From TrEMBL:
It holds the Pfam family NERD. Coiled coil: none annotated. Residues 31-147 form the NERD domain. PROSITE patterns: NERD (PS50965). It comes from Cucumis sativus (Cucumber). Signal peptide: none annotated. It comes from the Eukaryota. This is NERD domain-containing protein. InterPro entries: NERD.
Length: 321
């Protein structure tokens, strides 16, 4: 019997060591981050544009950086998008604020998301002007997307035209010309502008704009700040060149286990190349091998606490310039 108990404990320990996720992965709430990335992915698939997640645009008036969930560049427009991952019944007060009641917790009141998103437009416009781009009138607009399938409302018609409710989000189809069902007619007829050169210029600027670092875990995304690696001195020394000033992106791959040797991980990373939009070609990627117990210290957006994530639970890390 004791042999069976000891054997069971060994098996459990091995399972937890090699297959269970890090505790901090479970502690960090990632649903809002996942919603932003899901919306960005669907926009790109539907309209073939480029989506930029987690922008931190400098605001000259406040001397701080303003967070933008998502900016989408298409052939016809530049969209500033706020993603609200709201579930339960949502209604609008007379002052424009939103009330969200999921039936489980006390109803919460949100400042008017549309007005908050509109305030980001002149900040982004000013930033682009400083980078040498003057946008034509009507080229830049905003949307608030509600992608949670548990979103409910009594009358979706009460929401401003800038809001895309869950039902409307599900009705978007590929091949449509932008948001033809929701965009204002004043924007139409802008084709006299040289859209393609402007489109390419915006992509180059936004591709190197300040952003949150992006940590991709197994089925989860987290925006925030990469701080450092932690682990055995030898492994940390191998990773010393991975700094935001030098590296734009890294991915993690497991190596095969030999007998009872500890699992090791291959870390592939791309040197930053500012001349080509911030990333290197595939031939320039570098590789190091470290222990799977090595950790990333990462501080999620809107959190005062840094979290540790084992490299074995990490798929990729993208560092802002």
């Amino acid at each position: 019997m004791w042999f069976a108990i000891v054997g069971g404990l060994i098996v459990y320990g091995l399972f937890k060591l090699f297959f269970a996720g890090d505790d901090d992965v479970m502690e960090v709430e990632t649903s809002d981050f996942n919603a932003i990335f899901a919306v960005a992915s669907r926009f790109e698939k539907l309209y073939g544009g480029n989506a930029y997640v987690g922008l931190r645009i400098p605001d000259a008036d406040t001397g701080s950086r303003q967070n933008i969930d998502l900016v989408v560049v298409t052939k016809e427009e530049l969209l500033v998008i706020s993603v609200k991952n709201l579930s339960g019944f949502v209604s609008i007060n007379s002052d424009g604020s939103w009330v969200c009641d999921d039936g489980k917790h006390k109803a919460k009141t949100l400042p008017n998301p549309v007005e908050e998103t509109k305030q980001l437009i002149p900040i982004l416009e000013s930033y682009l002007e400083q980078r040498g781009v003057d946008l034509p009138a009507g080229y830049l607009s905003c949307k608030v997307v509600l992608p949670n399938p548990k979103f409910r409302t009594i009358d979706s018609g009460l929401f401003p035209s800038e809001v895309i409710t869950y039902d409307q989000w599900m009705q978007l189809k590929p091949g449509h010309s932008s948001f033809s069902g929701w965009m204002k007619g004043a924007f139409r007829g802008k084709k006299e502008f040289q859209e393609e050169p402007l489109d390419q210029k915006l992509k180059a600027i936004l591709g190197t704009a300040p952003m949150w670092d992006k940590l991709e875990l197994k089925g989860k995304y987290i925006l925030g700040d990469f701080l450092e690696f932690r682990g055995k001195e030898e492994d940390v020394d191998y990773l010393r060149d991975i700094k935001r000033s030098k590296i734009s992106h890294l991915t993690i791959q497991k190596t095969s286990m030999l007998g009872f040797a500890p699992t090791r991980l291959q870390v592939l990373y791309a040197p930053r190349d500012y001349r080509s939009g911030g990333s290197a070609s595939a031939s320039e990627w570098r590789e190091v091998t470290v222990r799977s117990s090595t950790e990333i210290l990462f501080q999620p957006q809107n959190s005062t606490k840094a979290r540790k994530f084992k490299l074995s639970s990490v798929i990729s890390l993208t560092l802002s310039a």
